[in-house]
Model the fold of this input.
Amino acid sequence: METLRILWLNHRDPKHPEAGGAEVHLWEVSRRIASLGHEITIFSERFKGAPKHEILGNIEIYRSGNRISIYPNAVLNYFTKFRGRCDLVIDDIAHAIPWFTPLYVKEPVIVIIHHIHREILNFELPQPYARIARMAEGSIPRIYRNVPFITVSESTKNALKSMGIPESSISVIPLGIDQTRYKPNWRRKSPFPHILYLGRIKKYKNIDHILEAVKLAAKEIPNLRFSIAGRGDKSVVKALLYSVKRMGLKSIVKFHGEVTEEEKIRLLQKAWIYVTASMREGWGLSVIEAAACGTPAVAYDVEGLRDSILNGKTGLLAPYGDRKALAELII
Done:
């Protein structure tokens, strides 16, 4: 078998403090490709305390720049380090702004994209950065006209088609999980009704909607408990803590903060229901992690989550923004 030298561009590597589901996908896929004898090099932004160059397992990582300067740095590093030394470039558009590789890369390019951000950018970025990011995302059909796309759900495939990407250029490969680790442990199930949100703490995740649903559900469910676990934006965490106090939910809600992989699995096994109210997902990795641990999900009927949740089988879906419906499904 011929050894391929693969350059993988992703904004964050698996060690990045803001790494999420896209970075889990990056790591799990890249290490499996490397195990087949191929050479993987990841290029990503540098974060505080991280070395510029690191070998992680059998994968080489180069880090340069911040979330803005990484784009010109990617071009510079391609010409100084990688051009002619790789056989394939993976253009991983995990955070809205593309790498524009067809404009300067001479090797074959494959795009990986989890979801189209669109209005999420208005939630997560101040103006005019949100407008610039939306313009950059909107340029994808023009820049990547003849490039193959891999995405994780039919929802994202449809979003790409609506932007003008030909269906023949899009392949759907859903996310998977390690079921030797994510599996039920019925002895860990909470003795009282326990719901869980586990993921990044971001504004577009609408965790405040879950708090409103929990307040409604608590009127009908004695001893209800709600755990929130994950890392994210400090301002969002602060707002959620204030909301918990204002809504009189301090005896019901517990913030776990960032948790280890072992604690994450324990929480998923312990919970009765996993709840997410995200505006949109590419797929919803935590949803299938919860399902593998024997915990069904309640969520909004939005892109990505309607792919990872089989409504009425592995979970239940509520109309987007309907907190009362969310509460009724929890009950």
Summary: The two ends are 55 Å apart (CA to CA). The chain has two domains: 5-172, 186-330. The chain has a mean pLDDT of 96.
